[in-house]
Every structure is written in C-alpha cells, then in structure tokens.
Fold:
Amino acid sequence: MEKKIPIIDDKPAKPIDYTDMGLKIKETLDGRVDNIGLVEDGIQIKETDLDISLKDDYLWDVLPKFDFDNPPVDPEQLSMAMVLYMREQGGIGLAANQVGYNFKMFVTEGEPAFAVFNPTITFQSPNLVMLDEGCLSYPNLLLKVNRPASIRVRFQDPFGNWITRQFAGMSARVFLHEYDHLLGVDFTDKVSKLKLEMAQKKAKKRMSNATS
Ligand SMILES: [Zn+2]
Structure:
C-alpha cells in the first residue's frame, strides 16, 4: 500500500558528530545502566559508520522479526547509531523502518535510552489517555492520540536477551507509538480524517513560520 508523507522536511540534513554524541550518550548513561541499556561495563560507545537517515521504504509494511542467529546488521552498532540519530533530530523514539531497515526494532529515550527488538505487548491498561504526539517521519505534525495508560511488554535487548518490563505514562506512549511503526501503522492512522487535515494545516503554518 502506498502512502504519502504529508509534509516533507526539505531542510538539508545536519552532519552528525558521532564522537561528540558518543561522549554525550556515555555521560548520560554512565552510572545508571541496567541490563536493557545500550552500554554495559566494558562496552564503549564508538564511532559508527552506519549511515542513518530518514527513509520511508518500509514505513507502511508489517516488519519481520530481527534474526539474531543471522543478523542483517550488528544489533549493538545499529542501536547506538539510532539513539545518536534520534537525539540529534530531537526525537524520543525511532523505529528501524523510519530509517530504512525492515525488521522489528526501535530505540526510545529513557534513563538510559534503550533498544527494543522483536517486542510483544502482553497487557494493555483499559484506561486510555489522550495526549499530543509527534513523529520524526512527519515533521511539525502534532496529533492528539488516545493510548493505554500502562502496558506490560516482552522484547529482546541488543544482545538477544529476553526482557519483561512494565511502562506507564510517557514511556508507555512512546513504546506504543514505536510498536505501531513495526506493524506499518503510524499515528496518522489513529485519528479521524478531519482531525488529521486540521493538524496538517497547522503543521504547514508552523513550517512556513519557521522558514520565513
Ligand atoms: Zn513515529
């Protein structure tokens, strides 16, 4: 199914200083890294030559699992590169298919930021919360989306270990937003056509204000 991104960000991409970002991420993560963090004792954040940029090739596809037995890309390197890119772009979550990879994986901001491979949602709270959301694939677009207040999830870390976690509030929201991406669903699918059109107009206005 073809779907067009309604607003294209035509600003030239800023060059990414991985060295600098690497230090920053290390400062942030040092001292409070648990088994879902990207950094463990002895693992250094290094420069990565993985070229990450926004691509929509697989954005609306249901993605296959990440195959840890035969990895198409180094999962740890990819996780680091995606966290660095996400932070550079000012996002708090980024799915693999937003940057041209077709497998179930995303990174989210947190303490520390972490990478999620092959997630499943095992429980969703029936309590829904409505909040504004943005998405790096839709620059300037903000949509009010209803989501469960808390979730229980299962996923693999970059080393293939299975993790079970509960999230509430913003971390649950980000997890659900990114999880949707892996099913080829994005936040524009979560609102009415009218609501989307109004939000797109506002986004265009925001865009022209920013460039004029
Ligand atoms: Zn998104």
The chain has a mean pLDDT of 81.
